[in-house]
Amino acid sequence: MSGHSKWATIKRKKGDLDAKRGKTFTKIIRELIIAAKKGGGSVDSNAYLRTIVLKAKAVNMPNDNIKRAIQRGTGELEGATYEETTYEGYGPAGVAVLVSASTDNKNRTSADIRTIFSKSGGNLGESGCVAWMFDKKGLIVIPKTNATEDALMELVLDLGADDMQVMDNEYDVLTTPENFEKVKAGIDAKKIVYDSAEVTMVPKNYIKLAGSQAKSMLTLLENLEDNDDVGNVYANFDISDEEMSKIQ
Q: Which of 3, 81, 121, 171: CA 20 to 30 A from 152?
């Protein structure tokens, strides 16, 4: 299983989404503000904003919250101004870690991220040190119990997907960012239920972890995601299900 998919599965198992719903809303609101600031407040003409609105609705964010965040981004409402920034570094065993953040104080955020890396067995690197190890892709994760391989493969390729990877318990449908919405809409039309659907950064290769290195890697990612300024964390690790059961 890919590092990204594994991490998504881990978060679902731990129930982080429900436990930290307030924090999840805060992070998505920042993304909405930035998206509206960059491309305008119309979901029809701003594809990036449209993607974030779908993300907000997936976690049941009230429409009023979404509307106010967009209005803050377009300047119709006053509020803090956020800017996007990316941090790159390494975890245990040289795992590549890519962190996307939104902040109103870069100095504070940079110091916080550096501290998290150093205290969790990793180190913050220079800009560009690991970004080349990831590709921006649409990723739709579908449990195997919800579709048959051949039928799903035919469907998603006809819709314009780049690839479908068969994992232990799921199918990972990969698309270009431009084709993501079309493929997702086609899957929705067939009423195929998926675990997650988003435009993300997919690693080009993976580093297998076990024992203390696996545990340290998960701690690093948990601490990064717990930071209010951090929106998303991507890493090219792989931990076997057997190893995960030992850690949990």
A: 3
